[in-house]
Amino acid sequence: MTNRIKEFRVKLGLTQEELAKKVNVRRETIVFLEKNKYNPSLRLAFDLAQILNVSVEELFSFEDEK
Amino acid sequence: MKRIVLMGVIILMVVATVYLWISNSGLSEGEGPFLGIIALILVFAGFLLIRRIKSWKAGEPQEDELTKKMMVRTAALSYYISLYLWVFLLYIQDRVTFDKDRLIGIGIVGMAVIFALSWLFYHFRGVPND
Question: ipTM value of the model?
Fold first, then answer.
């Protein structure tokens, strides 16, 4: 799973710390998400999409690893 | 805050126990490296404590879904590897003359080292897929 969190965050002029506070996670979690080292829960995915003003489908894309 | 205090108390208890151990019986032969490993574990615990304090000061949650998931994965991996450690210790117990107390001590310190290494593994690798 890949995501465009960094792209949309920068567009909105948010820092990792600000985004982390808005979705109530640690800054480290945002770092891990942006590096694709962690797949968020559905709840966090929806929260992120809401804060970044995009849909979940725009924010995350899934490629089957076969 | 409660967890920060708890972690601090545990670190202090370990330091006090090591101090009592050394002041009462002194260091016997071969216990130097053992002490070094305990010191390394304390440094690791101190590092985790500082991280928590920084998060608390920054107004971040000290735990979130990533830290919880990382802890669960770390615990599972370190438990699995620790089983092999104990099997190995039981195997060498019959072949090398070992004091029972020392064997248990090596096992416990070994488990702590395995936990720290497992945590570092997931910290650098991440937890990308379920």
Answer: 0.85
